[in-house]
Amino acid sequence: MSTDNPAITEVRVRKVRVGGDSTEVIDVTAREEPLEIRVEGRSVAVVMRTPGHDEELAAGFLVSEGVVQSSRDILEVSQCPSTGNQHGNIVDVLLGGAVVNWDSLTRHVFSASSCGLCGKTSIESVFQQFPAVKGDWQVSPALIASLPDKLRAAQETFSKTGGLHASGLFDLNGNLLVLREDVGRHNALDKILGHALMHDLLPLDQHILLVSGRVSFEIIQKALAGGIALVAAISAPSSLAVDFAREANQTLVGFLRGETMNVYTHPQRLEMS
């Protein structure tokens, strides 16, 4: 078995059955490698990601950090081949006049528990960059409930490896527009934002975001950077994610399973009797 997919890699494993024999086989795992993001030749971040859509990841990272807001802010995104690595683990972004605060442009500026920021400080600092979302449209709970199956059906690399997070961008009719997979849930969303930036789709105030796992503060912050008004997740949100979504006028849906869901904030965007 061989693969040309940069997102997966082959490994030898020994399958063991309790009380039975063991067999050595070739399996595939999700690839994880570092990506250095540079802005005008200057290193600003190193992220552990699954190779693929690296240009989108770099552009989306800059959307999340408030550096760029439209495709006009970026002149070029180029991938630099790395010595001894066929994937190219360096991406350089050439800006089109955007002003960069180099001191604040660091990875995990608004991360969750590991960054040491309290909730109040985190929320206030983000709102200095990104305004609360708009959008007074409504969708049915049935439409929201239909999204996980559509997302799962499109997760080709997850089907092979079982080891990737996914973010899916849907329109208000429930059509899946873009799906990205990555070992990091935040990277998958940054790839969505980068795609939207490059295709002049921002702000995404007429779209729905579905993530395959839990919702942290950083996921909600990145969604706000993209102008996304409704974020849905298969699993639970954190308390800070709920607080932030409430302040940002975002509808946050969690535990989306079967025909049930929890609506944590701004339920007015769901058609309910």
Description:
The longest helix is centred in the middle third of the chain and has 14 residues, at 141-154. With 273 residues, this protein is of the alpha/beta class. It folds into 2 domains: 33-114, Ubiquitin-like (UB roll), CATH 3.10.20; 141-269, Cytidine Deaminase, domain 2 (3-Layer(aba) Sandwich). The protein has helices at residues 54-64, 119-127, 141-154, 156-161, 185-198, 217-225, 239-247; strands at 8-16, 22-30, 33-39, 42-49, 74-82, 85-95, 165-171, 176-182, 207-211, 230-233, 251-257, 260-265. It contains 7 helices and 12 strands. Strands 8-7-9-10-11-12 form a 6-stranded mixed beta sheet. Strands 4-3-6-5 form a 4-stranded mixed beta sheet, with helices on one face. 26% of the residues lie in helices and 33% in strands. The N and C termini lie far apart (54 Å). α1 packs across α5 (185-198), α5 (185-198) packs parallel to α6 and α6 (217-225) runs parallel beside α7.
